[in-house]
Amino acid sequence: MGKTLKSGWFLLLMVLCVVTMSACSGSDGASGSGENGDKVELTFWNIWTEPSPQNEASLKRVEQFMEEHPDIVIKQQNIPHDQFKVKVKTQAAGKQLPDLVQAFPGAELMPLVKGELVQPIDDILSHWDGLIPEGQLGDYRVDGKQYALPANVTPTSLVYYDKDMLKEAGYEEFPQTYEEFKKLIKKLKESDTIPIALGNKAQWVLQSSYISTIGDRLTGDEFLQGVLDSGEKKFTDDSFVEAVNVIKEMADMGAFNEDFNSIDNIQHRDLFVLGDAAMMIDGAWSLGPTLEAAPDKNIGMALFPEVKGGKGDPEAVSAVTGTGIALNSELEGKKLEAAQEFLKFFYDEEYYKDLMKADILVAADIEAPEGISPLLKEVSQLTNNKIVPVYDANLPTDVTDMINSGLQEVTLGTMTPEELAEKLQAAVEKQQ
Q1: Which of 172, 307, 313, 423 could cross-link with 217 by S-S, CB 3.0 to 4.6 Å?
Q2: What distance in Å separates the CA atoms of residue 29 and residue 33, rounded to the nearest whole number?
Q3: Are residues 334 and 213 in the same domain?
Q4: Which helix (H) or strand (E) holds 79?
Q5: Does the global pTM surpass 0.85?
Q6: Domain of 222: which CATH number?
């Protein structure tokens, strides 16, 4: 009996020791904290499901990070785009977002910030000084705080021009001011050349590729936010009316093909590629197709020129940035440190170079790798200075529809710039 009793007590003591040791180890990597022993686990939702160059480059960076940081595990859920947006909205309502979540800029980021679901990254922002220009950060900045970083950028307003045709008109370089630009338009018309190819049948081109940048030239880049958020700015302000007048003036002087409101943007690209037009104002999405269709064409790239008296930066261009990665607001301690380390590793020069090799414009100031198109290099340099909001990425849908159709009417002469401005302002005030 004594021997049996001693054996029982010994067994009980061993069990207690095991339990105690488990409890001690649990204090350093508690279940539910995402930490597993000495490893830190971070959950990450993203939309990298399609086999695109950007997705492949992004997934590659995640794998490289885990290889170089064996103490950190990134547990991914790759969710198709549409399902992703629904899932984020649903889970955000219950504050059940992952540690890392892919975020969309501007209006889509705002609910996550206002709901205090994501946290700023200002503590580590200096890590990217010299790599990501200040002007590229705005789409992920709310109330002066930075919540994510951009990877790629899509400028919506680039001037593609035929260098040979401009040279024949007496221009070795693209005009730097709007007044000089108008003189070029007149010289091209005199030679029976279409100055600017335009296809605005779908109505969005004059908004996305024209007013988004021309508007900024006149109003400055705080205009849209002032209209929508504070009411300090109005569409009826003289600066915006003058921006619409610039578009009207170009239409009135015959800068575009006569059927510009009857053809689409694919057809206007054909006019430029075939040499019927000396220029076109279009987004970066036309770069690849233009190079493919006219590999030997002597093409130059420029931004819309400076407009005298304008409040905006003449080197700014309207653009939309791609998705970023936001950090859950509840992250702290080792998990927060691991998440910050992941961002530092992910958004580095190697990643941006991989994107450029895939002919993707990046939101970073880096030396272009070998083998990419000279035009892509040129566009990259043009867009590294400052990007400003695209109207349809920031305006409510009904206001976007109104400005799209209104700009078309202005060019047709059935509505004045002042009338369009009044309609837009009334629509905004109705929603406020």
Answers
A1: 307
A2: 7
A3: no
A4: none
A5: no
A6: 3.40.190.10
